[in-house]
Input
Amino acid sequence: MKLTMWTYEGPPHVGAMRIAASMQGVHYVLHSPQGDTYADLLFTMIERRASRPPVTYTTFQARDLSGSTADVFKTACRDAVQRFRPDALLVGASCTAELLQDDPAGLARTLNVGVPVVPLELPSYQKKENWGASETFYRLVRNFAGGCERPQHVAPNSCNILGPSALGFRNRDDVTEITRLLAANGIDVRVVAPLGATVEDLARLPEAAFNIVLYPEIGDAAARFLKKTFGMPFVSTVPIGVGATRIFLAEVRALAGLSNDVLAGEDEDRATWYSRSVDSNYLTNKRVFIFGDATHAIAAARIAARELGFKVCGLGTYMREFAREVREAAEEFGVEALISDDHLDVEAAIVEARPELVLGTQMERHIAKRLRVPCAVISAPVHVQDFPARYSPQMGFEGANVIFDSWVHPLMMGLEEHLLQMFRDDFEFNDRAQASHLHAHAPAAVAATAEDAFDSEPLLSADQPPADLSWTPDAERELKKIPFFVRGKARRNTELFAARKGIRPITVETLYDAKAHFAR
Amino acid sequence: MNQSLVSCGSTSTIRQRGQHEVFCGLTSIIWLHRKVQDAFFLVVGSRTCAHLIQSAAGVMIFSEPRFATAIMEERDLAGMVDMHDELDREVARLLERRPDIRMLVLVGSCPSEVIKFDLKRAAERLDRKYGAGPRVLCYSGSGIETTFTQGEDNFLAAVVQDQPRNGATGKVAKLVVAGAVADVVEDQITRLLAEMGVDDVVFLPGRNSDRLPRIGAGSRYILAQPYLGSTAAALEGLGATRINAIFPLGEEGTTAWLKAIADSFGVSPARFATVTEAPRRRALEATAHYRRLIEGKRIFLFPDSQLEPSLARYLSRELCADIIEVGSPYLHREHVAGELAMLPPGVSISEGQDVEVQIDRCRAAAPDLVVCGMGLANPFEAEGIVTKWSIEFAFTPIHGYEQAGDLAELFARPLMRKALIADGQASSRRRIAP
Output
């Protein structure tokens, strides 16, 4: 057993549901106990869908266990086909039904429902949501594209987009942005799947020259299958960030046999200039901790380091499947990758890294709130506010613009930061009154309870300096003059310096010696 | 699956089997962990259970919540490890992290029930192991056995059954009010009863796990919530007797509920009238603000919390709504008999659910307002049907006199909103096209 207070991913059948809900004409019959219908509200509330997800649950109860739950499943299958008349039926079990071993696949086959049935084997006690989505999409592609013929002549500039799905972080607008960019580059996008696709569309996948995998955690397995079966190459550079978008477009153009000199859409890139403008100077080397799904975390690290001039002080993912990629990226930035789906580990790592900005998921938002560090959300799992009404892609040039705004927004602005360093005792504009937009309600009172969360010793820090390091009152006072967002780092550096040199107690001189030793 | 529609004049109801669009009992942890402030709820289940609670609790997941899930893994199921040892280890880890916990509640789920993991034995063993430490209880919140609020019922039943073993001392409670209500409601009830001379009232659950009442022969109890079948049985098992009443929703419900207590404790009618006069007047006045919005509106209630018969009675009698169908996941005949008897003839009562068929019925009836869960609400709205999402009745103070107006507003708000937005759209159209 594993103690879990918060889970980054749902069970694999939620991933399967995301695929069914993404597509049109696909219905999912899920053998599951009463109560598992909670998953509907992920779609109707968080994504604010106007229709119920295409899922029929058997919702068996205790009294059904003494009878035949297999019959309950068969009835549900028949009723679902009759009522919804889908083009394809997914059948599978949730974690509890998996224990009953009713074999939905076998049962559905014997039913002869008159529509293609794609059985799903999703081991709920081993795998998680993204794996479930990827596996489901792969099964569907295999089933509906697998037997198709690849045409003799395929237009070299034709491609499919694989990976976008329901409940995916900003997938709706990413697809719009990338499709537009591709069209402007003379690329013909044939099928986007699973989002919005029908099973006929899946059968048309082999008619394109190549595939673009926008979200590897969902589209990678299907793309590999299409490559193996039809020899279709695929691009898996994720176009998040200006640099990545350029590389992506170059790769796509190369695959499509187009020259590499026109990159339409670049004139929309404001992020590059914004980041170069003098106002952004104060962003240099701000310490940023990054956590999320592998795709978004790696992309965020590259943007942070190369496009915004931040310093990456931590990078990690909850996706074990993509641990290797994240480790490689982390090495690029000289940090050790954190591969964990335990939010307590993540919290400990954040405390340890003492970042000035956290880029993470909904959960890191909670951690950052507790530690009083600015935070922006870059990856699923997300909550309803990250399914915004406005156009908000992460990908392409407009995506880079959105990212610039949303990551810089939580930080205190440059002038504010300078004034705080110069005049510390202003009664309104002081140390504890953080950026006004962050704390609309009684900031001073709230902040006082947190008492510079980072200033006090971390609860979970792994390598704490020896406890007998005492500070002289003067040195403590001097420490308080350092702006709050770097004060924790300064305290720790000074203590490490003092411990190393055997200095005690720590004086004002030690503080400045350490400052000179480490520089910022 | 569905029998023909039957009016509630007779005793028969529509019994439905099919897809149930409801929460499981684990969901009740969301309010129980706030109510009982030193309790920790540990679900023994799967990732689905963890995901459910976190999805239903939405933004209310703190970095340090008072609930968690011990997620069963492959090796637990394959018998490669002893699940009891595993649980003990995780509990030890948890208590080390949260030494302030005074009551640890192990909550059974579908997976743990299906593999017949003996949670009761585990709880007893851990209870012995921790001795003077936290009490360890268990109950089932699984979907196969419980629907939404029934989780609270099972929890309270476990608390009551645990009482003799833990040897609560002190005098036997005179009156136990069973069912979690908002703190503010609890205080109002306490005040009103004290003014009538009924003191020594204890609430179940209490805000604190070690301030539990001693219940025995001579204790009387009254239900504040309609979903407490097992709790009532457990209380009666200790010798307590039930005061029968309808539930304290709206002016009428609250008065009848308080009157039942007053009669049981021999409070004179004059005193009862004096104490309740002012709050009754306030409740009626507050409700009246919303009546014009709801009067004559046709309302359809989907099953969710078992509060539906009481809500329908309030809607029908105090807000003059026209009730089409009252769905409830389960009907405790005896406990809701009073509520059902007060519904006008012609109202359909349904127990259980076949959601597709019920949606068909609902569409055919073309109601003005549908009370339903979050999985159905937005899809109905998209069809142009106004909804009130039902989970709010579990999370909002709605009981008692002072909340009667708030309860009316919960129903009126979506209707007001529809009118407001329609007006807004109409006026902006006018502005654009002169």
Q: What stands out?
A: The longest strand of chain A covers residues 311-317.
